């Protein structure tokens, strides 16, 4: 459904990534991991088509739903921001119909953000805004969801909600999902595969269990990390990543 082949993006003389292959099939979820400045946002934007490749090829459907890390705090109701996702199906001078508002409300409900429906975006917190953006992405009804660090502004309760929403979306199998994250545990909890940006010309993609080994993760972040399973009553074995300071 989405594929990059031999993809490269350069900033001046410096390659941010090069020779990158990525494939994202329907119903699959891939997490992108890498330290600050390694190129996660650049890659995400390349996948959406917002950034053009300097090398390689991109195959994608016409509409890719994209959740950026931040959005300007627009002075509009959350519902109106979410309904903007329907613009593509309205034509040039079309206005949203009842069915579009129904889709927008359903998207807000699906992520448990109905409470923000009538609130203005510029009066919501950064984390609340991010949930509204996720609803907007769902309201596009695109089969591909691309999210840039969707948990970055979320508190623990909302991170937990986000993980539950992403797991639910993955289980429903309607979307191909790509998300970047600084939280490797989210990749373990949600994704089928991880793509590790080890270096500009070194990327490793594979099933999360295999590719997110202690040695790969420690090399990725340049700090010793351990993976452990913790038994938690009612939840079974939970995977966790522990940095060794
Ligand atoms: N428009 C630009 N012009 C020049 N360099 C850029 C531009 N945008 C990003 N970069 C550089 O490209 C590199 C990758 O940036 P990117 O934002 O993709 O990293 P990231 O992995 O998403 O980082 P973070 O985890 O901090 O959000 C960085 O070194 C950044 O300085």
From TrEMBL:
Keywords in alphabetical order: ATP-binding, Ion transport, Nucleotide-binding, Transport, Zinc, Zinc transport
GO molecular function: ATP binding; ATP hydrolysis activity
PROSITE patterns reported for this sequence: ABC_TRANSPORTER_1, ABC_TRANSPORTER_2
A UniProt-annotated Pfam family: ABC_tran
GO biological process, one term: zinc ion transport
Domain of life: Bacteria
Protein's UniProt keywords contain Cell membrane: no
InterPro entries referenced in this protein's UniProt entry, alphabetically: AAA+_ATPase (IPR003593), ABC_transporter-like_ATP-bd (IPR003439), ABC_transporter-like_CS (IPR017871), Metal_Ion_Import_ABC (IPR050153), P-loop_NTPase (IPR027417)
Domain ABC transporter per the UniProt entry, residue ranges: 2-224
Family, similarity comment: Belongs to the ABC transporter superfamily.
Protein name: Iron complex transport system ATP-binding protein
UniProt organism field: Bosea psychrotolerans
Lineage: Bacteria, Pseudomonadati, Pseudomonadota, Alphaproteobacteria, Hyphomicrobiales
């Amino acid at each position: 459904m989405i594929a990059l082949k031999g993809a490269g993006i350069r900033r001046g003389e410096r390659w941010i990534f090069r020779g990158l292959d990525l494939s994202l099939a329907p119903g699959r979820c891939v997490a992108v991991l890498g330290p600050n400045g390694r190129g996660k946002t650049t890659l995400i934007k390349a996948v959406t088509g917002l950034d053009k490749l300097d090398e390689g090829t991109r195959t994608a459907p016409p509409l890719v739903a994209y959740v950026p890390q931040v959005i300007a705090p627009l002075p509009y109701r959350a519902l109106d921001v979410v309904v903007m996702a329907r613009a593509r199906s309205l034509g040039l001078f079309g206005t949203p119909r009842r069915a579009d508002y129904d889709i927008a409300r359903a998207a807000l409900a699906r992520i448990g953000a109905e409470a923000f429906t009538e609130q203005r975006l510029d009066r919501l917190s950064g984390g609340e805004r991010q949930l509204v953006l996720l609803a907007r992405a769902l309201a596009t009804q695109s089969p591909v969801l691309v999210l840039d660090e969707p948990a970055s502004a979320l508190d623990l309760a909302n991170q937990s909600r986000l993980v539950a929403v992403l797991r639910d979306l993955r289980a429903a199998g309607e979307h191909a999902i790509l998300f970047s994250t600084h939280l490797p545990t989210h990749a373990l909890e949600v994704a089928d595969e991880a793509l590790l940006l080890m270096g500009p010309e070194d990327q490793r993609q594979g099933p999360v269990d295999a590719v997110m080994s202690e040695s790969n993760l420690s090399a990725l972040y340049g700090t010793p990390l351990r993976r452990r399973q913790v038994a938690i009553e009612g939840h079974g074995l939970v995977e966790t990543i522990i940095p060794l300071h």
